[in-house]
Amino acid sequence: MIARTEIEFPSHLKRTASQTPYSWSDLELTKWPEEITKESISSNRSFAPRNTMSTTTLEFASGISGSGSTSMTSTELAGLTITFTAAGGNISAINAGGLGGSTTEVAFASGPTTSMTVSFSVPVDITSLLHLDPTGFPETLTFTPTGGSNSSVNSSHGAGSGNTVNLNWTGVTSFTITGAASSGQYAIDKLQLAIASSSAPEINVKQSTTDIVSGGNHAFGSVQIGAFKDVVFTVENTGDADLDITSITPSGTGYSIQSGISADPISAAGSATFTVRFQPTATSQGTGSVTIGNDDADEGSYVINFTGSATNATLDITVFLEGPLQSSNTMLTTISGSVPKDPNDVYSAVLEETAVSSLPTNAVDWVEVELRTGTAASTKVGTNRAGILKNDGTIVDKDGNAFTMSQVDGSGYYIVIHHRNHLSVMSNVAVTTTTGTYSFNFTTAQGNSFNNGSIAGGTSRFAMIGGDADGSGTVDGTDLSTWRTNNGAVYSYSGNGNADFNLDGEINAVDRNDFQQKNTSKTRQVPTT
């Protein structure tokens, strides 16, 4: 705060600023601001001392109540109440008759009193005051402030005179005057002050360019299980003091703080960011919030509510069956018209399956998909699900859409594929995702199957091993007996279809020679314990 400088005029001069200017010799100059020169006054040029708008000189001529009591108040300046008290005495507003340069009333503490205290309803910046001697004794007084970072000021004056005391305090809530002579009386006038500027932080939060009020909402949208969505929020400080961020706390399953506040404290007119991640593990998740703890006076707990939805992860699996696989690396679809519309007619206890009116285009057969968190059978997750194997080796849902499994929670899984007359295979690694889609291709290398549990087929591809008519996990004499019993018989998917190892709708020597005989003694490499 730049202090305003007063110009004192002798009491016999009554002209206003709009009248003819005084001559230089008319003025008893105490101190001029540097903007004002003798020439500017003589030429009647206009001038304005710096920073005068916010500073007021109080002379206790109005807004006084309680005069003559132990406590007097002044409301002369709007927005400010000043309370005067005297230790052991009374306070009055009296006319000092121009003593020491006073005008109209002064605040007078009659005694004997040991001190006079002036308190303010809000912090103020005090430039100076006029202290008077109503006692007729020279004095050295001490002015001691409370509030702000200020120092006490000592001031001396002669008997029966006054003295302008330059204080230059900021953020003061009260001050006390001590050191009066034995009569214990104090008098002040021309208290020059301004209400202190109130510096405070003010929080505002944005996502991109959109403001979000406390209690407002942000929609994360739909996120697949196994995937995540990160959203960056910007915390702005629109106030004029540092904003302290004390905490950023998420709530709601699936929500977390990916990166904390980038700057703390946040300076006035500054900003900082933090990132929230929505990574659901179940379709029931989506509701949450984040609470930003801070030192804004009226928004110390700034809450943003979240909405979102979670959808099942998809499994993008490619696998071939040795029997129907051709050199073109596609599989026969010969029996697709005979494949049951209800997967429960093929595999028992599969997850949430109902019949469909028709199978997807290029359907080869149903397969059963199992998930494990480890290689052991005991790590199986939930119930298996049936999917349609298409001629290009992809597995789709019964309606032809992407294949999903509701028990997936974003973890890594070993993927197991079962077929009714081929040996089961399992991925050689736990398949993970950050996108919501678990992708795995069994066909490009034998090592992609756990313990090399696949066989070469097609052109430079690998496939599930055919010939296991009874689904025992071993190609053996029992499978040969099944083939012999049904060799040459009319094909029936639900009757003797398991003996048709190449899925061409016929049971003949090709099934025995190219699959059952060739693969005799081979066993599935998927652990059963």
UniProtKB/TrEMBL annotation:
Protein name per Swiss-Prot or TrEMBL: Abnormal spindle-like microcephaly-associated protein ASH domain-containing protein
Biological process according to GO: polysaccharide catabolic process
Signal peptide start-end: none
Family annotation (InterPro entries): Dockerin_dom_sf, DUF1573, EF_Hand_1_Ca_BS, Ig-like_fold
